[in-house]
Amino acid sequence: MHTGTRTVLLVNPNTNRGTTSMMVELARGELAPAGLVVEGITVEHGPSMIVDPITLDESAQHVVDAVRRRLAAPMAAVIVGAIGDPARDQLAAELDVPVVGIGQASILAAASEGRRFAMATSTPLLADSLTKLVEQHDRSEGFTGVRLTASDPVVLAASAEQQYLELAAAVRACVEEDGAEAVIIAGGPLSETARRLAALDLVEIIEPVPCAGRLVADLVGGPGPMSPIRSGLGPGTVGVPVPRL
After folding, report:
1. Which of 14, 103, 124, 180 is the right S-S partner for 85, CB 3.0 to 4.6 Å?
2. What totals of helices (H) and strands (E) does the chain contain, helices first?
3. Which of 11, 74, 18 is nearest to 48 (CA)?
4. pTM of the predicted model, to two decimals?
């Protein structure tokens, strides 16, 4: 088998290369034991942080462009590294490898076994988009909603400690006021803070990037391809043959 076919492409839909490196390391922890190599790619255009529906929608084309530039070499799967999963559906329909979004993977993990779950995030303008993503994956029944930090996401991006404290407060509200049994820390750039929050043992913290890594490892490293119906992943998770980008 060509070694390239064991490569998982992780695409960061924002232009922050530091975020790409952070997500690659987190994904590698889940994929390396399955013999899969993670290759990170940062989109060439767009914002350094996706904070609203407009930049989320615009990033979809940048994600497609990034994958298109990489199509000449074989790959085993693609991970879309933004919580809103820009371009995931399009890529899943056009590639013959699994395409997993970190939003998709975290929602499926959080909602497993019928649990009540919530999201905590620093991007208030994306709350509606995140709620729609939960609806898209038919997990609305147990979803308690999105809790937000008090400060602007750009401010929190510049202060890891403030980000941690405000997200911790949002997580506590998810648990104490909403009854959530699992909380997704909704944002690729929030990955390091999500790991810190998990250590508090307030509730099960769902870390989107590791969730995506585990889902890809299941899809690629298992005995055979999982059908969307059997895996519960919904239509479009495993695409059809022949890239048409």
Report:
1. 103
2. 10, 8
3. 18
4. 0.87
